[in-house]
Amino acid sequence: MKITSRNIGLASGMAAAVALSAGALIAFSANASPAAEPGTLAPDFTGTTSTGEQVSLSDFADKTVILEWTNDGCPFVKKHYAEPPENMQTLQSDEAAGDDVVWLQIISSAPGKQGHVDGAGADAINEGRGASPDHVILDPSGDIGRLYEAKTTPHMFVIKPDSEIAYAGAIDSVRSARVEDIETADNYVRAALDAVEAGEPVEVASSKPYGCSVKY
Questions:
Q1: Contact 211, 74 (CB under 8 A)
Q2: What pLDDT is attached to residue 34?
Q3: 69 in Cβ contact with 216 (< 8 Å)
Q4: Per-residue pLDDT at 82
Q5: Half-sphere exposure of 130 (CA within 13 A, CB side)
């Protein structure tokens, strides 16, 4: 092809357009808000439970909802389910025992990945460790996990009765897999639940989750 000044100009224009588009995409991505962060409405979802039921977040309107991402093979999950002190089990029994609080445990491990189980397997795990979530939601596609940008197991969310996210992040303040650290940690989930129940602002509304990566 014969190279002319017109061709050079067209090529330069196309390159500039590509660069502009790429820059715009990067800027948009950087400024995009997470799908589920404190102060925003919790995204609705529908999932299949370990017993084969279909449940949606909207089924629990006017209730406080706790979301717990879990993976029984993760040492950080094992820390909080260790017996004693049964940290996660105690939260479930103390905070979600009434009619006004619903605890949803979510398993987003993909088939073949650590933590993936069927419904019977999930129920057996909870029975063996004395856990009492209201429902276990199986999310092998990872759709619910990605909707909430769940990053670790555990990753916790507290949702107020008006569907606003009150807390998102780690279960507590000590980022370790050592059971002995539970005693000295600030339990962010319990504090958030207490604040929601009292109608007060949540002092620590977000924290960086710690644990094993969700096995999408």
A1: yes
A2: 55
A3: no
A4: 98
A5: 13
Percent of the chain with pLDDT over 90: 81
Q: Are strands 46-49 and 54-56 parallel, antiparallel or unpaired?
A: antiparallel
List residues bridging with 24 in a β-sheet.
none
- Listing DSSP states for 59-103 in one string gives GGTTSEEEEEE--TT-HHHHHHH-TTT-HHHHHHHHHSSSTTEEE
- Fill in the amino acid letter for 91: L
Q: What is the DSSP letter of 211?
A: S
- pLDDT tens for each residue of 74-101: 999 999 999 999 999 999 999 877 779 9
Residue 94's identity, in one-letter code, is D
Q: Where would I find the H helices in the chain?
A: 5-31, 75-81, 87-95, 119-129, 143-147, 188-198
Cis before 75? omega within 30: no
**Cα–Cα dist 163/64, whole Å:** 8
Rounded to the nearest integer, the mean pLDDT of the chain is 87
Q: For 11-64, how does the pLDDT look when each residue is reduced to its tens digit (9 = 90+)?
A: 334 333 333 233 323 222 233 445 699 999 999 999 999 999 999 999 999 999
Distance CA 199, CA 85 (A): 29
Q: Cα 166–159–172 angle (5° rounding)?
A: 60
Instruction: Tell me the C-alpha distance between 141 and 153, whole Å.
Output: 16
In angstroms, rounded to a whole number, what is the distance separating the alpha carbons of residues 191 and 208? 16
